[in-house]
């Protein structure tokens, strides 16, 4: 199984690395970081680098395509070279997936028309512009399209994908191996649960262009 993670300057690290940690744990699954050109790209806050292993031309096909979020993916919404590559990979993929605002890129490629999809809660409405039906939830499955909510939800989506391919017990074994047992100190992980002042704080940060998650 070949997994291609689209990698670009300004991506949110956990959007890519969270699913990577799950998917690379399956024997026989090869995960590659693909971008416009080989070399290091810096994540959204600039303090972490991720290496692009292969350029777009070197990896025109994949069984699983994953598009992360991050402020850097806004430039991809009109990047026809990247969008064409996504369409080409999608034509032969078993699964086409996204995390956070990565669903906007899938939408821009025309892949979510008439599909239920999700993404970061602050950026659900823009999905309508691409003909998608935005819904909530940690992940949404519609046909071969798996879209995850913000940042950490990519881990959940990746475990779900492994469960679909290899069975629930296998996915649970990976969950145990990576000790993914979330017990956050606060129950504020969604706008429905977070106190209203906290929700407004995040909205204000987004309006000011200083998103706390930079998604």
- What's the CATH topology label? Rossmann fold
How would you classify the helix and strand content by structural class?
alpha/beta
Head-to-tail CA distance between termini: 28 Å
Q: Strand fraction band?
A: 15-25%
Shape, principal axes of CA atoms: globular
Name of the CATH homologous superfamily: Class I glutamine amidotransferase (GATase) domain
Average pLDDT level = 96
> Helix proportion of residues, in percent?
25-40%
Order of helices and strands: EHEEEEEHEHEEEEHHH
Oligomer: single chain
- Which CATH architecture would you pick? 3-Layer(aba) Sandwich
**Major sheet attributes:** 7 strands, mixed
Spatially, the strands of the biggest sheet line up as 5-2-1-6-7-11-10
Quickly count the helices.
6
List the helices and strands and how they pair.
Elements: E1 2-6, H1 13-23, E2 30-35, E3 39-42, E4 49-52, E5 54-55, E6 64-67, H2 80-92, E7 95-99, H3 102-108, E8 116-117, E9 133-134, E10 139-142, E11 145-148, H4 153-166, H5 168-177, H6 196-207
Parallel strand pairs: 1-2, 1-6, 2-5, 6-7, 7-11, 8-9
Antiparallel strand pairs: 3-4, 10-11
Kindly list the characteristics that best describe this protein:
Rossmann fold, two-stranded antiparallel ribbon, 11 strands, 215 residues, 6 helices, globular, alpha/beta
Describe this protein's structure.
The chain has 215 residues and is α/β, with parallel strands linked by helices. Helices cover 31% and strands 20% of the residues. The strands form three sheets. A seven-stranded mixed β-sheet has the order 5-2-1-6-7-11-10, sandwiched between helices. A two-stranded antiparallel ribbon has the order 3-4. β3 and β4 form a beta hairpin. The longest helix has 14 residues. It is globular and about 45 Å long. The relative contact order is 0.15.
């Amino acid at each position: 199984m070949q997994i291609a993670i689209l990698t670009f300057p300004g991506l949110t690290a956990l959007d890519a690395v969270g699913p990577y940690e799950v998917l690379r744990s399956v024997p026989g699954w090869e995960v590659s970081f693909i971008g416009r050109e080989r070399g290091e790209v810096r994540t959204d806050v600039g303090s972490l680098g991720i290496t692009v292993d292969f350029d777009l031309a070197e990896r025109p096909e994949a069984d699983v395509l994953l598009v992360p979020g991050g402020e850097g993916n806004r430039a991809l919404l009109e990047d026809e070279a990247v969008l064409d590559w996504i369409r080409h990979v999608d034509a032969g993929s078993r699964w086409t997936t996204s995390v956070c605002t990565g669903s906007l890129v899938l939408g821009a490629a025309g892949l979510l028309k008439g599909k239920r999809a999700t993404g970061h809660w602050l950026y659900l409405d823009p999905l309508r512009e691409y003909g998608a039906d935005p819904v909530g939830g940690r992940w949404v499955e519609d046909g071969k399209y798996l879209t995850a909510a913000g940042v950490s939800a990519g881990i959940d989506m990746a475990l779900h994908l492994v469960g679909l391919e290899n069975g629930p017990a296998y996915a649970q074994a990976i969950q145990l191996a990576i000790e993914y047992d979330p017990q956050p100190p606060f129950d504020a992980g969604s706008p429905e649960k977070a106190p209203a002042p906290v929700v407004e704080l995040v909205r204000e940060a987004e309006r000011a262009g200083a998103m706390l998650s930079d998604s």
